[in-house]
Specification:
It is built from 14 helices and 23 strands. By secondary structure, it is of the alpha/beta class.
Length: about 500
């Protein structure tokens, strides 16, 4: 009987998907399951490469399934020797590396809870998360590797499917720490929906995701899901450098990539894309909508349509563009359509479905109720979803409702604009006006400001343009690489108070 991984078309996905069939892809069952076994141990066959660590400074580290299996087994024994018991938290603040994979999978083998932490967190960011999850150990370097050889190279996991396996922190600021999202071992089964239909993973792919495994995209979609299928995957260690990634795409002949929209934008502005050959068959993005200029660049460079994958850490992936499905038309700018068996609606303030073209809040049906995504959106006549920004990113000026995302997309069409963030700022006459923070290598002056304003007026409407433009050296970002409009709004409010 065929498995879900044997189907590639959109029609087959709708006809053959059933959540119960996801379990056919795993050794474990609804009672007993362990992520480390499913992702690593069961794929040990000779010296097949599991992970290619692409290093920012050059070179790479190749790790076989066997190497990670043995390292993680030894690490599990090492944890037991230190008194770590099932249910204890083990925080891991490491870049992708031999030590990182040994620690993450070893902790889960031992029944402990792995807590990946972003390596660029400062002391306050680490402190707040450590105080929240109270780990038994915090791993910040690879010194433990030297002592692993004293322990056995095999370890038999003994976890229930509903035992906690991973604590995941979203990319919030240190002032407003999000609560950890707590995942059980069975989450590896659930995430396969996004793997199959959001990133289009299938046996034989050579897959790369440059997002940090401290975040949901890099960990679940970029690491755990593809390893569970037994793929060779690529990851990125160190400060992101677009030319280095483009070089790795050619050298390692990756056929499938999923990255943040920011990564693709950096590839575009790097000017290095034309120096390499590519073998990509599927391309997807997540994190935020991709601007049209970057989407066009990627399609021209890689020869594949840019497929959106939309969701949140809390609710998972709910809208996808089915990469690799020859019978699915990818509409530029869209978030795609619901995952197989999923129900997503755009609703008005009264909870009623919005007709095509009307903006409302996107909601997903879960556990017999509608759950708000806190994002705005709309659908078209063909059932494709389009992002309308975060609910708090809407700008209302003189009665007009405007999307920060649409304005940013228009500003980015100016050849001298590298990055932009748009927010609403108070205005006595209009309530709010649009302010754009622009990153550019060109000198910012009144003439440049008028060029930007005229461009947006011409592309959107006469009222929908940034009345205020501030040229800045850099934009605040979330650790996941998105423009942090919340910080821009906070900074602007601080200025208002100072000038009051």
């Amino acid at each position: 009987m065929k498995k879900l991984t044997d189907f590639t078309s959109y029609a087959d996905a709708q006809a053959n998907f059933a959540s119960a069939r996801l379990w056919e892809l795993f050794d474990g069952d609804r009672e007993r399951l362990n992520i480390a076994h499913e992702c690593i141990d069961r794929h040990v066959d000779g010296e097949k490469t599991a992970v290619i660590v692409v290093k920012a400074a050059g070179g790479e580290e190749l790790l076989s399934y066997r190497r990670i299996s043995e390292d993680s087994a030894r690490f599990a024994h090492w944890l037991a020797a230190k008194g770590v018991v099932p249910g204890d938290r083990v925080a891991i603040k490491l870049e992708p590396s031999r030590a990182f994979y040994a620690a993450v999978f070893g902790a889960m083998k031992a029944g402990a809870i792995a807590v990946p932490l972003f390596t660029l967190f400062g002391p306050d960011g680490v402190k707040l998360r450590v105080e929240d999850c109270k780990p038994r150990l915090l791993i910040e370097d690879d010194a433990f590797l030297a002592g692993l050889s004293a322990f056995p190279a095999t370890f038999e996991p003994d976890t229930r499917a509903d035992d906690l396996a991973i604590f995941q922190y979203t990319s919030g600021t240190t002032r407003e720490l999000p609560e950890a999202v707590k995942h059980t071992h069975r989450a590896i089964v659930t995430v396969m929906v996004a793997a199959l239909y959001g990133t289009g993973l299938r046996p034989g792919d050579r897959f790369i995701c440059p997002s940090s495994p401290a975040w949901g995209h890099g960990l679940w979609h970029g690491t755990l899901a593809p390893l569970a299928i037994g793929l060779t995957i690529g990851c990125y260690a160190g400060k992101f450098d677009a030319p280095r990634l483009l070089q790795a795409l050619e050298e390692h002949r990756f056929t499938n990539i999923s990255a943040a929209a920011t990564h693709y934008r950096m590839m575009r502005v790097s000017g290095a894309a034309s120096k390499h050959r590519y073998f990509l068959e599927k391309t997807s993005f997540t994190g935020e909508p991709i601007d049209s200029e970057t989407a066009a660049f990627c399609e021209a460079t890689f020869g594949r349509p840019m497929c959106s994958m939309y969701g949140t850490t809390e609710i998972g992936v709910i809208l996808v563009s089915y990469p690799g499905a020859s019978d699915f038309i990818v509409k530029p700018g869209s978030l795609g359509k619901p995952i197989p068996g999923g129900r997503v609606e755009v609703q008005d303030g009264e909870g009623r479905p919005c007709p095509p073209g009307v903006t409302g809040e996107m909601k997903v049906w879960r556990r017999d109720r509608w759950i708000a995504t806190k994002d705005l959106g709309r659908i078209d006549e063909d059932g494709y979803f389009f992002h309308g920004g975060r609910a708090d990113d809407v700008i209302i000026s003189a009665g007009w409702t405007m999307s920060a995302i649409e304005i940013e997309d228009a500003v980015l069409k100016h050849p001298d604009v590298r990055e932009v963030g748009a927010i609403g700022v108070p205005d006595k006459l209009r309530g709010q006006v649009v302010k754009a923070f622009v990153v550019t290598d060109r000198k910012g002056d009144d003439g440049f400001t008028r060029e930007i304003q005229d461009l947006v007026r011409a592309r959107l409407s006469q009222h929908e343009y940034p009345r205020i433009v501030e040229f800045v050296a850099a934009l605040p970002k979330t650790p996941a690489g998105k423009v942090n409009r919340k910080i821009l709004r906070t900074l602007e409010r601080g200025r208002e108070k100072e000038n009051a």
